[in-house]
């Protein structure tokens, strides 16, 4: 079997590693990711150039495509490949609106009475924005309707100082059509601990994966700007130290109800579904969906997968998903990023990665936004690589992962506190403080 993997980063590297040995891998990537390049037949092209991807797929007679990032989903890559008879693990353009159009997502919850929604409103003019913020009287979250690479969301009390700054930013979102829409979503600020549940979906059936917790803030202690994600961890029971089975199951139920609703609205949703939830004192609330694997969370769950990944992909395409089993282990992922990330990183710096030493230290490497040229690895202005360790406990996995970071040299940094006992205790105590 020939499988095309679309995308350039660590998420796609993890997908390719899950396929390796069970199919021939073909890849479209915008830079030469050394991890993907060595195990695939690849072409360096933009994954958003749908015609080029389609020609590469048909020329190589690929049987199936697995779509990594969200941008080509928004552009209709699945629709284009399916028109050529290529089965896709990824939603159609309309089904992908669960991520690419936040209004579609919130309306779905409202119209189909799906539990766990937040109070929200959508606006396209400053007067209504200003009136609502004044009347609401509580902290809020400002979100562009469309895609902004995970960096468009701003929260009062964090990136926004007060209601005045919230009004100004909401106006900016509308005026500049940030995310592609001249409108803005304003939501209540959910209080609690965020967590992620991902699932395989075949249009009807939902096979959930172990829960994980991402760390979006750039610096230790959850300080600094929001990034694409600085690391994540998962626990050996598939839950989290602050997340019990009831709340996990409640999150999965929301995802199942969402898949049913999408099916009624626009047709079957097939691929990976990522639910970002906030666990508060009244249970989990849905913050947002992604229409693909999370990055870094894909690196937590895919190495634990016991069921054959290629078989799962075939079942997703065929609509007869039978479930997925995972090892009962904990994982910790730490992202190595260039100094100055996000926003001020100087690209094209050499990074020395001793994969042999990293492996001996009990970790594995997933390359992200780097470029291999003449045997050397060069940084971009985005995340460079993820290191992942697997063990019987989060604490043990964290120690292995942290030790492995010393074998990456260059003008880089990472969050040393991801997965540490101290940070996890902080999460647990936070949940006790809010009465959960």
Short summary of the structure?
By secondary structure, this protein is of the alpha+beta class. The chain has helices spanning 10-19, 34-37, 50-59, 70-74, 77-82, 97-100, 102-111, 126-136, 163-175, 245-266, 297-301, 309-318, 355-360, 394-404, 421-433, and strands at residues 2-6, 24-29, 41-44, 64-67, 87-89, 120-123, 140-144, 154-155, 184-188, 193-202, 206-208, 213-214, 217-219, 223-226, 231-234, 270-280, 283-290, 330-338, 350-353, 363-367, 370-373, 376-379, 385-391, 408-409, 412-413. The chain contains 15 helices and 25 strands.
Describe this structure in words.
32% of the residues lie in helices and 28% in strands. It is an alpha+beta fold and 436 residues long. The longest helix has 22 residues, at 245-266. Strands 12, 15, 18, 20, 23 and 25 form a six-stranded antiparallel β-sheet that branches. The protein has a five-stranded parallel β-sheet with strand order 3-2-1-4-5, sandwiched between helices.
Mind describing the biggest β-sheet? 6 strands, antiparallel
| Total beta strand runs | 25
Q: Could you say which structural class the secondary elements and strand pairing correspond to?
A: alpha+beta
Reported by name, the CATH topology of the largest domain is: D-amino Acid Aminotransferase, Chain A, domain 1
Q: What is the count of structural domains?
A: 3
> What ranges have pLDDT less than 50 throughout 5 or more consecutive residues?
none
Report the CATH C-level class of the largest domain.
Answer: Alpha Beta
Query: Which outline best applies?
Result: globular
The level of helicity is: 25-40%
> In oligomeric terms, what are we looking at?
single chain
Looking at CATH, the homologous superfamily of the largest domain is ATP-grasp fold, B domain
SS field, number of helical segments: 15
What is the alpha-carbon Rg in Å? 21 Å
Give the distance, in angstroms, between the N- and C-terminal Cα atoms.
48 Å
Mean pLDDT: 96
CATH architecture annotation of the largest domain? 2-Layer Sandwich
- In percent terms, what proportion of residues is strand? 25-35%
């Amino acid at each position: 079997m020939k499988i095309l993997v679309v995308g350039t980063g660590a998420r796609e590297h993890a997908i390719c590693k899950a396929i390796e040995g069970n199919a021939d891998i073909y890849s479209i990537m915008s830079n030469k990711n050394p991890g993907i390049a060595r195990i695939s037949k690849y072409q360096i092209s933009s994954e958003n150039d749908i015609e080029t991807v389609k020609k590469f797929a048909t020329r190589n007679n690929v049987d199936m495509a697995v779509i990594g990032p969200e941008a080509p989903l928004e552009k209709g890559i699945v629709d284009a490949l399916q028109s050529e008879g290529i089965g896709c693990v990824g939603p159609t353009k309309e089904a992908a609106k669960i991520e690419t159009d936040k209004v579609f997502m919130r309306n779905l919850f409202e119209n189909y009475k799906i539990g766990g929604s937040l109070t929200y409103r959508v606006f396209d003019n400053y007067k209504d924005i200003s009136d609502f913020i004044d009347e609401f009287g509580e902290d809020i979250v400002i979100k562009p309707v469309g895609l902004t690479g995970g960096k468009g969301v701003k929260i009062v009390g964090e990136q926004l100082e007060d209601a005045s700054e919230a009004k100004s930013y909401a106006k900016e979102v509308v005026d500049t059509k940030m995310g592609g829409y001249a409108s803005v979503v304003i939501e209540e600020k959910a209080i609690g601990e965020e967590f992620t549940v991902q699932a395989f979906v075949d249009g009807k059936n939902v096979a959930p994966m172990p829960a994980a917790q991402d760390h979006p803030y750039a610096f230790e202690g959850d300080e600094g700007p929001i990034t694409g994600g600085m690391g994540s961890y998962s626990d050996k029971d598939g839950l989290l130290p602050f997340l019990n089975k009831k709340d996990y199951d409640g999150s999965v139920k929301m995802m199942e109800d969402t898949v049913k609703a999408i099916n009624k609205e626009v047709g079957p949703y097939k691929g990976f579904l990522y639910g970002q939830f906030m666990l508060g004192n009244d249970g989990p609330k849905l913050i947002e969906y992604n229409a693909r694997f999370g990055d870094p969370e894909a690196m937590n769950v895919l190495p634990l997968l016991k069921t054959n990944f290629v078989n799962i992909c075939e079942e997703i395409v065929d609509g007869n998903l039978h479930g997925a089993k995972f090892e009962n282990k904990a994982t910790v992922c730490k992202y190595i990023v260039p100094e100055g990330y996000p926003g001020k990183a100087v690209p094209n710096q050499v990074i020395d990665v001793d994969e042999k030493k990293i492996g001996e230290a009990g970790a594995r490497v997933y390359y992200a936004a780097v470029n291999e040229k003449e045997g050397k690895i060069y940084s971009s202005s985005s995340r460079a690589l993820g290191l992942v360790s697997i063990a019987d406990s989060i604490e043990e996995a964290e120690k292995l992962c942290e030790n492995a970071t010393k074998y990456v040299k260059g003008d880089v940094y990472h969050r040393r506190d991801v997965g540490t006992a101290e940070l996890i205790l902080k999460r647990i105590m936070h949940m006790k403080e809010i009465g959960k």
